[in-house]
Predict the structure.
Amino acid sequence: MNYEEMMQRLAEITARLEQEQLSLEEAATLYAEGMELSAQCHKLLQNAVLSVQEIPVPLNEKV
């Protein structure tokens, strides 16, 4: 699953948790899935930031 798909799934989970009457078990399962997706998204974003920071910036070039 890519970042955009994970964010879409997180939006779906959030909507279900906010709007539907769920059993405690269903809510806990959705919450756990959402937390795992959130952690994965955070890791992807951290890696993207690190990748951008590692791009060499040429010195002494006029922009």
